[in-house]
TrEMBL record:
GO terms of molecular function: 5'-3' DNA exonuclease activity; 5'-3' RNA exonuclease activity
PANTHER family found in the cross-reference section: EXONUCLEASE (PTHR42924), POLYMERASE_HISTIDINOL PHOSPHATASE N-TERMINAL DOMAIN-CONTAINING PROTEIN (PTHR42924:SF3)
Taxonomic lineage: Bacteria, Bacillati, Bacillota, Bacilli, Bacillales
Domain Polymerase/histidinol phosphatase N-terminal residue range list: 129-191
Protein name: Phosphoesterase
Gene3D superfamilies in alphabetical order: Metal-dependent hydrolases (3.20.20.140)
SMART domains, alphabetized: POLIIIAc
Highest taxon of the lineage: Bacteria
Species: Paenibacillus silvestris
InterPro entries (alphabetical): PHP_domain, Pol/His_phosphatase_N, Pol/histidinol_Pase-like
């Protein structure tokens, strides 16, 4: 899978604490650099005598105390959206910060604290997760904590818990997890479903009678900052029967296991692309409860994001920097052309070839290169590992890639991975 090492900087400070400083608060100043996404602070204390020192821990930024854990912890993390209990997440403004110590007990001979601070900087990277899940807040059986724990076990980075016409889950997400919790709601009507992503309360009332009501609800969600996805639009049981011209941002081309409904969504999406429309395709498991084939992050949506935050992930999707694989361990592919990547529109003064790279391919996988003219190339992989292709632009409007695999579990050849297009200015 794509690996992006986050750029980091490690700084160590040492501070002697003398016995006369007992019962006072000690600051160890440090400079917070620009563009920090997450800061890790660890400390240890070494006694200069036989008595054991007791030194408490906390931190301040340039304006206020951002956290205090007393003697309960020897390390903590503060990020843009998550932090160790006892500490406040939020913007990590560059400037004057300090690690705080309470010199509660100091031996007569004194002691020394060693503080190690690791700064993790904004680093654009591929993140993976699930954009369509449910919980006990609607008709699912998983608690929010169970959903988060499963995603963490899968090595995923984000989850949107999109309960039907409910927003209560957005106010009770588990905080102590590295998985980014994207606020969501599945706007569920009798004639189609749509995900509203990114805001706590996208609408006040889900009930609709007609297309005008649907338009008003979606307009409200958009005004409040939500991203709008048309869900399983060609489903056999709950398709989108409202107007397809309804305002929306993204198209759920892959919902749950690959079936005929996804084939129909894929065909419609391809028609839109061929007509010149740039429409971002997403995926989601739509998991509700333990089932044999419907599981978390199946499919798995990959997003190239500037930051591991709600906004960073949603902005990455909006740019079309998205690929979808059948699972977190499925094949992963991307397209590049010079400095441009999947989702971008290549300037007409760039003549570079398009490079297609796919990881975790298996022998027998079928790789399809697709443009507005349909399938332009099909290759059956003769080995397992990585696959690469370089192709000329040839005046095409876009290229995208699909990987099809034979799954022995169901004795069927199904979609294993697809990318959003890379477009060309014409």
């Amino acid at each position: 899978m794509p690996q992006t090492n986050r750029r980091q900087q490690v700084t160590t400070y040492r501070r002697e604490i003398h016995h006369f400083e007992q019962s006072t608060y000690v600051e160890v100043p440090f400079e917070m650099p620009e563009q920090v996404e997450e800061v890790h602070v660890q400390f240890s204390v070494q006694s200069h005598g036989e008595a054991k020192p007791v030194i408490d821990l906390g931190i301040r930024d340039s304006h206020k105390v951002r956290g205090w854990s007393g003697g309960a912890r020897s390390e903590f993390v503060i990020g843009l959206e998550k932090a160790t209990p006892g500490y406040l997440p939020g913007e990590l403004q560059a400037g004057d910060w300090a690690v705080l110590h309470n010199a509660y007990k100091v031996p007569a001979e004194g002691c020394e604290v060693t503080i190690t601070i690791t700064f993790y900087f904004h680093t654009a990277r591929w993140l993976k997760g699930d954009l369509h899940t449910h919980s006990v807040n609607s008709d699912g059986s998983y608690t929010l904590e169970e959903n988060a724990a499963i995603m963490e076990q899968l090595g995923c980075d984000f989850i949107a818990m999109t309960d039907h016409n409910a927003v209560s889950q957005n106010y009770s997400y588990p905080r102590n997890t590295p998985v980014v919790m994207i606020p969501g709601m599945e706007f569920t009507t009798n004639f189609g479903h749509s995900n509203f992503l990114g805001v706590l309360e996208p609408i006040d009332d889900f009930r609709v009678r007609n297309q005008e009501d649907v338009n008003l609800r979606i307009a409200t969600a958009r005004e409040r900052g939500a991203k709008i996805v048309l869900n399983h639009p060609h489903c056999d049981y709950c398709p989108w029967e409202w107007d397809f011209n309804t305002d929306h941002d993204w198209w759920e081309v892959w919902n749950g296991p690959w079936t005929a409904r996804n084939e129909r969504a894929l065909a419609w999406w391809q028609e839109q692309l061929a007509s010149g429309r740039k429409l971002v395709a997403t995926g989601g498991s739509d998991v509700h409860r333990p089932e044999r084939y419907v599981k978390h992050a199946m499919p798995c949506t990959w997003v190239y994001a500037e930051t591991k935050t709600v906004n960073g992930i949603l902005q990455g999707i909006d740019k079309g920097h998205v690929a979808i694989s059948y699972s977190p361990e499925g094949p992963f592919g991307q397209l590049t052309c010079g400095a441009y990547m999947t989702g971008d529109t290549v300037s007409n003064d760039v003549a570079d070839n398009v490079v297609v790279t796919i990881e975790h391919i298996r022998e027998g996988d079928q790789i399809k290169l697709i443009s507005e003219h349909g399938v332009e190339l099909t290759d059956v992989c003769s080995s397992t590992g990585a696959w690469e292709l370089e192709v000329e632009q040839k005046g095409r409007a876009f290229y995208r890639v699909e990987v099809w695999r034979h799954f022995e579990e169901v004795d069927m050849t199904l979609m294993a991975m697809l990318t959003n297009p890379i477009y060309f200015q014409r």
